[in-house]
């Protein structure tokens, strides 16, 4: 109590109990701060991937749903890690990987078919008036696979535009194929969040 009275007199407190309360609040604050400084952040590996897209459909994808899908894929990895069941984690990751592989193969087949036609006809590729680029932190292999899928989507749509601009593809067919490709990409993205 003597310490409280001396401390109170030095600090100009109205009562010794106020001084003690102030000391206790400072002590609690100091202890909570110590806990925060002792807690170490997890060091997770990552890659920085720059995604550059040109086609309007791919630009819309980057603007609309890619961030949400990337977050959902990473969240899935974190949740599966905390569940701790390797079989469940492997099965869930395999399902997502299979979905990405299926869509990637679909886009790759379209790319090969359209690129072969462009090469056979010696068509000049189109350029775009707009371009979108965005850097992503990639924290899991599935996130990396998803970004590669977005780039294939952009290339597939760009090849359709090249054929259309050279009058090798009807406008209605182009629009129908662009819409179909966009649906594939949205379906993949929506299944992840």
Structural account:
This protein has 193 residues and is mainly α. It is built from 7 helices and 2 strands. The chain has a two-stranded antiparallel ribbon. The protein is elongated.
Briefly summarize what is shown.
73% of the residues lie in helices and 7% in strands. By secondary structure, it is mainly alpha-helical. It has a two-stranded antiparallel ribbon with strand order 1-2.
Task: Considering the chains and any ligands shown, give keywords for the structure.
193 residues; two-stranded antiparallel ribbon; 73% helix; 7% strand; elongated; disordered N terminus
Would you count the extended β strands for me? 2
- Shape type: elongated
Into which percent range does the helicity of residues fall? over 70%
Q: Low-confidence parts, pLDDT < 50 over ≥5 residues?
A: 1-11
Oligomer: single chain
Order of helical and strand elements: HHEHHHEHH
Distance between the termini: 60 Å
Rounded mean pLDDT score: 82
Strand-pairing-aware structural class: mainly alpha
Radius of gyration (CA) equals 28 Å
DSSP strand content:
5-15%
List the helices and strands and how they pair.
Elements: H1 2-11, H2 16-38, E1 47-53, H3 56-64, H4 66-83, H5 86-121, E2 132-138, H6 141-165, H7 171-190
Antiparallel strand pairs: 1-2
């Amino acid at each position: 109590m003597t310490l409280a009275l001396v401390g109170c007199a030095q600090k100009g407190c109205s009562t010794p109990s106020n001084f003690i309360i102030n000391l206790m609040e400072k002590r609690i604050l100091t202890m909570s701060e110590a806990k925060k400084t002792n807690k170490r952040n997890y060091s997770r590996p990552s890659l920085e991937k720059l995604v550059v897209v040109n086609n309007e459909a791919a630009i819309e994808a980057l603007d609309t749903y890619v961030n949400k899908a990337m977050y959902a894929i990473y969240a899935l990895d974190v949740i599966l890690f905390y569940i701790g069941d390797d079989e469940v984690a492997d099965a869930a990751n395999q399902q997502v990987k299979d979905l990405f592989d299926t869509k990637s193969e679909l886009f790759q087949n379209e790319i090969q078919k359209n690129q072969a036609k462009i090469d056979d006809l010696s068509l000049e590729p189109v350029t775009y008036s707009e371009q979108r680029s965005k850097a992503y932190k990639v924290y899991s292999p599935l996130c990396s696979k998803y970004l590669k899928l977005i780039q294939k989507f952009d290339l597939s749509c760009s090849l359709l535009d090249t054929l259309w601009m050279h009058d090798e593809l009807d406008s209605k067919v182009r629009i129908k194929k662009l819409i179909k490709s966009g649906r594939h990409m949205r379906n993949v993205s929506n299944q992840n969040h």
